[in-house]
Design brief:
The structure is a homodimer. The first copy, chain A, is built from twelve helices and 15 strands. Chain A is of the alpha/beta class. The first copy, chain A, folds into two domains: about 160 residues, Rossmann fold (3-Layer(aba) Sandwich); about 170 residues, Dihydrodipicolinate Reductase, domain 2 (2-Layer Sandwich). Chain A has a nine-stranded mixed β-sheet with strand order 14-13-12-11-7-10-9-8-15. In chain A, strands 3-2-1-4-5-6 form a six-stranded parallel β-sheet, with helices on both faces. In chain A, helix 4 packs across helix 11, helix 6 runs parallel beside helix 7 and helix 7 packs antiparallel against helix 12. The longest helix of chain A is centred in the C-terminal third of the chain and has 20 residues. At the A-B interface, strand 7, strand 8, strand 9, strand 10 and strand 11 of A face strand 7, strand 8, strand 9, strand 10 and strand 11 of B. Chains A, B: It comes from Pedobacter jejuensis. Chains A, B: GO terms for molecular function: nucleotide binding; oxidoreductase activity. Chains A, B: This is Gfo/Idh/MocA family oxidoreductase. Chains A, B: Keywords: Oxidoreductase, Signal.
Chain lengths: ~375, ~375
């Protein structure tokens, strides 16, 4: 596992050398390593929007995964993708007929990259069609939906993976390694500032019915998930404060800005920010008795940068989605266990915390958690 | 006012050039500017501990203020200071007899640098002796005490100034200038991480009776005060979460770690951390619609560093206490109005917020403020 990264590290290819652009790692010529001769995960993407396009582009550089099919409600988009990615007619579906993928032996997995509200029914249909499901985060609108999706995939004996791209990001993994090795000492504090100014007011992400909420569902989830993988514990309480300055853009049920705090069993605490209306964020910070880690940017698509008490983090710069899809192939085929899980249970935990945050913000009281 | 700094900026003496040490600015030879020929504030320091010593050392470089007297309960310390700072016997007092300073024409002001619990009675005695009072922060244990101190100084027609050294720090003042000029646009978010691991468990700062609390009274107050001068508004609500991991070191009533959040009339919010048990902190961050400011370190004694969306802040590196005392001389003699007030009312506001934070942490509910 992680053979490309391990190999690059071994031969001393530093982040700096690879930093020819944000896709530098993905574009590294194959002669740097042994050609991959294992099974290739053949993926269909469901939902051909902005992020779907980003994943498709990143997958060009994958060695273990390949884009082979599309599912979309827009015939013109399907045509366009067919040309661009050389996708045969027989691997193209729409939202009415994609259950027929059951009979398609050339597709192994379907990556669901549609509005949040659709994930639940679509993943269950993917499972029923006997295909592995990869689902964008948040995996569902709430914990009940998430549990049903997990159950459906179990019943169909297919894998359910959530698109947590940071779980494969080298700087992130290095900080987790250092924490596990005790290099920070006892963790006392974690901070995440996640947010940006949302653009187009008509996008589905600002539509409660499609998104299930606002910033928290889309970007706040990085703070939640990050707190868990950085601190290495599950939170036992949450408090939250919601602020809305623009109720035209951020309508009822669509959160603009939420500050939230998490408490962990060890006594560590986290201070997190989720916002669709604050610029210049994207920072993780963790402080232990013996050291610290600061990542800034921490979850953006571009290069992640970080430093610790030992100096600058110099891990390889990767295209997150390329590494994610290659690694997901090994999870699906080889039952590889990633350092940070990306299974349905992982997605469910984040949704339980999101529900607790929304509740805590509403009742203005601490909410205890047991996840 | 600010003639030295203005002059240095005019002639292009950059922070880098001045950065020969943390006292570089203070040590800048006098021939850089016109010699000061105004009145010099003659100061006695009450309380000859660690911070008193720091102030005394910094005052060596003052042009408008001079250390001329001491008040202490320890005769050996008085002797030591007399030698070190050339202080005449007639300007030395103890805690029993310092009211007699009333008859000493050679002392203009007394800087009270004693444990927090003593500030109230000592400042009132200073006022009754007809001397201007400079008082370390927090100015008192609570708002009632603070109001009584303000009243006593008003009645005696003496000034009451609080030792807010950051109010004179050039990087800080530049960020405030930029905010007032609209360079950040509408302020949306402020963050302050203030804290360190407290050392000696027997120090007065960890004694509820002397300190009136824990980290919040000592270091958390920087976050409160910083939020106010950075955002430029007074908070209208506060929420707070207290965490204690070491109840032997941090006894009943001595707060170890408190996270608190502030809401402002404009809709801006602040996320703050106050801790005596978390290392690697000392950061301010402010985000507006059009720009940001990050200061790290933000309130430490050493050089303040910062950057904004426009680049690195290159203000002069100063010894905070030197500039503070020179500026306080102009406030006392010339009725100079500093950019950020340091009067008793300013200290009272911080104490009202501290009381609200302690209450919010205790009842685990939002507390509204009207200060």
């Amino acid at each position: 596992m992680n053979s490309r990264r391990d190999f690059l590290q071994k031969i001393g290819v530093s982040a700096l050398m690879l930093q020819l652009g944000s896709v530098a790692f993905a574009d590294t010529p194959n002669h740097f390593e042994q050609p991959y001769d294992g099974k290739v995960l053949r993926v269909a993407i469901m939902g051909l929007g902005g992020y779907g396009t980003r994943v498709a582009e990143a997958m060009k550089a994958c060695t273990k995964a390949k884009l082979v099919g599309v599912i979309s409600g827009t015939p013109s988009k399907i045509k366009e993708w067919q040309t661009k990615y050389n996708i045969p007619e027989k691997n193209c579906y729409n939202y009415e007929n994609f259950d027929q993928v059951k009979n398609n032996k050339d597709i192994d997995a379907i990556y669901v990259i549609t509005p949040n509200a659709l994930h639940h029914s679509q993943v269950i249909r993917v499972a029923k069609a006997g295909k592995h499901a990869i689902c964008e985060k948040p995996m569902a609108l709430n914990a009940i939906e998430a549990q049903e999706m997990i159950d459906a995939c179990k019943k169909a004996n297919v894998k359910l993976l959530i698109g947590y791209r940071m779980h494969f990001e080298p700087h992130t993994l290095e900080v987790i390694r250092m924490r596990k090795a005790g290099e920070f000492g006892k963790i006392m504090f974690f901070q995440a500032q996640c947010g940006f100014k949302a653009g187009d007011p008509n996008q589905w992400r600002l539509n409660k019915a499609l998104a299930g909420g606002g910033a928290m569902m889309d970007i706040g989830i990085y703070a939640i998930n990050g707190a868990r993988y950085m601190v290495g514990e599950e939170p036992i309480w949450v408090t939250a404060q919601e602020t809305k300055t623009d109720s035209l853009k951020f309508k009822e049920g669509v959160d603009e800005t939420i500050q939230f705090q998490l408490g962990f069993p060890s006594g560590a605490v986290a201070s997190c920010l989720s916002s669709y209306n604050i610029n210049y964020l994207d920072r993780f910070f963790m402080s232990g008795n013996n050291g610290f880690a600061e990542m800034q940017p921490s979850t953006g698509y571009g290069p992640i940068k970080g430093r610790t008490h030992k100096g600058e983090l110099m891990q390889a710069i990767t295209t997150h989605q390329t590494v994610q899809m290659d690694e997901m192939a090994t999870i699906i085929f080889d039952d590889n266990k990633p350092i940070v899980p990306v299974n349905g249970e992982e997605g469910l935990k984040d949704l339980k915390i999101i529900e607790a945050i929304y509740l805590a913000a509403k009742i203005e009281k601490k909410v205890n958690l047991n996840i």
